[in-house]
Structures are given as structure tokens and as C-alpha cells.
Design brief:
alpha/beta; 6-stranded parallel β-sheet; about 45% helix; about 15% strand
Amino acid sequence: MRIAIDGRALNKYKPDSIGSELSEAVNSIAGIRKDWELLVILNQFGEFKPVLPNVNTLSIKEFLSLAADQIAIPRLLKRHNIDVFYSPYFRCPVLSKARKIITIHNFTYLVLKVLYAEKDVSQSIKLNIAWKKILADSASKIVAQSQNSANDIVNILKIREDKISVVSPSISNNFMPQNEENITAVMKKYAVTKPYILYVGNSRPYKNVDNLVKAFEKLPKTFRDEYNLVLAGVGEFKTGLKNCITIDFIRHNNDDLPSLYSGAKLFVFPSLYEGFCFAPLEAIACGCPVLSSNTSSMPEILNDACSYFNPNNIEELSKKIHTILNTTSLLEELREKGLKRASHFSITNSSNEFIKLIETLISG
């Protein structure tokens, strides 16, 4: 069987988390199913070096994404007699006759606008939804990274439930507890001088970083003086707090991240909505206790591996931070449960789920 994979995320100039995850997945699936041929589609900026004999690359020139999606890729699929096409993005060659699987994972902005924010959805959002429904309808199968996301896809795009499969992504093997030397080096690099509470993510409104800062401000002064609050990846976001350290940008596959997670006394994730919550999973994989908001996919993904709070209740968040950091037994319990939960999100488990999806699609 010949499977083509949209590998345009494998950009040598702009590496990102999707590309890193895709690279691991391709090699893992090829290793498990040696009877399948995997063909990774790259554009002129792509770079991927196959390590197994049943993995090869195909090339297209991409100057306009829509033209590449709807003209170049369909021609390529037909020329190479592709059985299944997979895209890790919400992209689909609508007119191609190949079986098509797409992943919908960055659905946050539509969910927030349609379900939570705006009663009267703008015309541009309606057009966006209409186009995405065309893409989703043309796919043979849709991958959602959580059941929460699957439910949102059904509600917003009016897609049949049986067309959607939940396949959990994996956590990179880079995320594991680090030694003291690595932790000390990363603390020095980012001028962290005290035990610290950590957040990793951007500072868009739905991430709710403001409420985390307000909760930190509500802690007793002696407690605030004892800890740094480290906000990593928040761009130009500023707090004005004496003991708060902001890191403007930190790449997902940055070597510093595992050490930053490992050294934190507590990781706090105040987000209002996530289709899949990578950052708290990465934190628990590094042995860091986690305190997470209780919304959207977080309880589904994290299960009993962390403590939860209402992200709109600043007082509750502040009290939980104080209680957890003052309770050694609770910190150890969260650490142990977190490491156990993280083991479910291995590349092997994720690859086997995806292989089962393709086998079901072909046999059907």
C-alpha cells in the first residue's frame, strides 16, 4: 500500500511542533508496517531524510498554498497511484479520488467565536466555516486529537460522528526528567534565581495568563518573595511584578524546555480552551506537578494526573497554588501520577492508533 503524507510542515527554515511530531510519526509507522510505502511530500523549503527503506520523498513547487493543495498535490497523488493521503493540517485536495485523512487540531478560534464569544457570528467566520466544511466533507476520515475536539467538530461543521476518529498525538521522547546540571544551566540562562512556578504558552486572551498573574499577586508577600513566576513563550507580555520573569519566545522543540519543566516546583496551565493540551503533558512527562484549568480537553487528557481549578476563579487558583506548594505529599503524589499518565502518550501508542485507522479505512 502506498501512503502519501503532506510533509510541508518539515520546513528547514521554520521548524515547528507539527513537523517534529510528523517526522517521528513517519519513522515509527514505517518501522511497524514495513509492508507499507510511505511517501513524504515536500515543497522547495522542505527537508526530510528517510531512515528506512520503505520511506521516500516527493517534491512539489509551492508558491500559493491553495494551488498546491488543489492542483499540485492531486496530480502527484494520481501520478504515483497513491492509496491513502494524509495531511497533519486542516487541508485536503478536494477533487482527488484517493482516500484522504486530515487532522483538525487548531480549531480554537472558531470554537471560541462560535460557541463562547459571539452571538452574531461575522460573515467572514461563516465563510471560513463553509470552506472548512467543504474540506471536511471531502475527507474520508477526520482525525481529532481529543474527544472534546471531536464534539466541537460535529457541533460546528455538522460532520457525522462516525467520520471522526480520536487519535492521541505523542509526547516527544525529549520530554523526560532532567539532571540538576541541566536545570541549573537553564535557570542561569533565563535569570531564574529562586524556586519557580512555570507557565509555557503564548499570551493570547484565551490562554488566560492575566488571571495567573492576578492569582500570583494574591499570594502572601512572604510566599511571593520565595518564588519566581516564570512565563515562557509570552512574547511582549509584561506584568510589572518584581518576581515575575517573562521569556518572549521559546520554540517547542527547544532543548531548554525539558530542563525548564523539570526544574519547576509547579506548572500552572490557566487556559480557557484547548483542543489538546501539550504543555501540561510535557510538564508531567518531565516529572513536574501540574495545576490545570478544568475546561475543554484538559480533564480528558490529563485525567487524575494533576489538580484542577476554575480558570475564571482567581481566588481559587491562588489558594490552590499556595496549598500544593506547601504540601510535600501532594507534590509527590502529583509527580508520580503525572509520570504514569505521560507514558500513555508514547509514539508507539500513537502510531498503532493511526495504523488501525488506516487499516479500517482500507478494509471499509
